[in-house]
Amino acid sequence: MSFMKLLRRLLAVSLVVFVLVVLFGQLQSKPERRDLPSPSPAPVPTVALSSFSFAVISDIHSDDKSLQKAIAKTREDGAEFIIVAGDLTTLGKREELIRVKDILTQGGLSYYVIPGNHDLWSKRSLTNPFREVFGPDYQAFQKDEIKFILINNGDGSEGVNEQQENWLKQELADCPKLYCLVFAHMPLNHAVLKHIMGEDSPVVASQAARLVKELVRAKVKELFAGHTHYLSSYELGGLKTTTDGGIFTNKGTQPTRFLEVTVQLPEVKLEKKEVWLE
């Protein structure tokens, strides 16, 4: 073999060895793969719970001291407002109504009032002492997702007149999408007690039955009422009803008491507590 052929063969072999060495070195120096840590899942946003409370009182019957005690207790417990479900007075005289209004105003809490049958005893064709002192005798307002509808059914011979019934239908139109609570002086029905709307009038009794159907159709969550002087809760005709007792000093079957209602949000839930004054 000539010298030149041998040299070319040696150079070819050396080149192959060099390439193999370089490749092997690159493989050896390849950085170790490190998997990046998975990102932590984003925290699920939490909805802050909130609540508010209010009181339902009725059947004061001009008992100023009991009313003052009830307001003081309600304020102490942190309620935001009071709903008075009728029978603020004994005879419905203007001076009685003014005195009750003064006590409510001095109590330092917002309040909403509807009349009871006692508050309408002095009503005459040309005057209405309750309206003169308190203004509208039925009304509605909203707080958060809760709609409060206060109706006047205290007149046992008239019930809810046509004007108010038309107003009520308009207010109930919102109830399928809101949480509606209705307040009245007289319960619309009861399984045992006869002391309800229409107790002295078949016409008014039939009106009460019609109102029950309208409230159920509108998906009203609950009706609160007074008049019975008895605290109870029941469901009849598809309408949940709570009566709040009475705060006037009496020798009845139950002690003087009223209701405090706490509304839990955002998923609306009612918590009711009876408060005894004696």
Short synopsis of the structure:
The chain is α/β, with parallel strands linked by helices and 278 residues long. It has helices at 3-29, 64-76, 94-106, 129-134, 162-172, 202-217; strands spanning 50-57, 81-85, 110-114, 139-143, 146-150, 179-184, 222-225, 231-236, 239-244, 257-265, 269-276.
What's the pLDDT, averaged over the residues?
A: 86
CATH topology: Purple Acid Phosphatase, chain A, domain 2
Rounded to the nearest angstrom, the distance between the terminal CA atoms is 129 Å
- Cα shape: globular
Major sheet details: 6 strands, mixed
List the total number of helices. 6
Q: State the helical fraction.
A: 25-40%
- In angstroms, what is the radius of gyration? 37 Å
Task: Tell me the structural class.
Answer: alpha/beta
Amount of beta strand: 15-25%
Could you spell the SSE succession in H and E letters? HEHEHEHEEHEHEEEEE
Total domain units: 1
